Amino acid sequence: MIVRNGRIAPENLGPTITVGEILVEIMASTTGFGFKEPQTLIGPFPSGAPAIFIDQVARLGGAAGIIATVGADDFGAVNIERLRRDGVDTSAISISPDRPTGSAFVRYRDDGSRDFIFNIMHSAAGSVILTSSAETLIAKAGHVHVMGSAFAIPGADKVIDAAIRSVRSREGSVSFDPNVRKELLGSGNFRSQFETMIQNADLLLPSGEELFVAAGVDGEIAAIKALHARGVGEIALKRGRQGATFFGESGARFDFHGFEVDEIDPTGAGDAFGATYLTSRRQGLGPEVSLERAAAAGAHNVTKRGPMTGLPDTAQLDLFLSTNPRRTA
Ligand code: ATP
Ligand code: MG
Question: What integer pLDDT is reported at residue 191 of this predicted model?
């Protein structure tokens, strides 16, 4: 395998691809505790972290493809149609003949926390296969983006490994969004898969404590140093409504304090951010501008109900950037 060089491959090397879960999300229309009484729900909304990510890449004009599985049902069609309409290559999405599309029911509590009912592991989303269509997509890819959540899916690790090897052989690049809760890391192969990704990532996109989990070190500066020492070229740290920070290998640092918006639905902000940062870098923009664009995409997305509803295209992103106030601290 060709070793990483810590640089993000330009657009012309081939599409950005990802692997993992495609779901529909069905949301309670009121806040409260869970689902123990009849209530009004709204959905299905297309969802799944890798799907949100890859849709945002395509909306910004980046070539994009996803390897995933849906059922032969309307929930699958909702997703495929959305991705296709936005320009994602859906040829490597398998249709399971006997399992329904994955789903997540979500209800927000008043304090912003969420109750979920997931149907993922026993749904179509619970398996990913290296089909010949997936091999074809991998063979032309220039960049692989990996979501930590994908490692919960049997088979995904093999597909991710094949994709990384192939992309590396063409001097392509790799990004990793840990997107995982600390509690999950103890289980199964998570720890070693996480470790492999730290060793492979040119770009890391952690949020909150994921930074310390990834580094195996506490303290922001120490964690960043440890990750750079292990060869991660760029780190874009997500800080929710407080914005984000870029840490470059040479010690460069940019803090962006974020935009003031009315948050309606925070789901998908991190995926919109990651996709916009990566796509901007692949399009040749510098880290500072890419960080601001990424923060704008995240902020834009939280203003709409539904994980993908608020993903901006390039014109919407430029308009948002030119009309929204930045927080000063
Ligand atoms: P996710 O819940 O999708 O996993 P995350 O934790 O990975 O999200 P966040 O830090 O929540 O990522 O959001 C990503 C970026 O989106 C932030 O760094 C910020 O720039 C922007 N953002 C998120 N929420 C808000 C908000 N309420 N107001 C303004 N900007 C926001
Ligand atoms: Mg998160």
Answer: 80
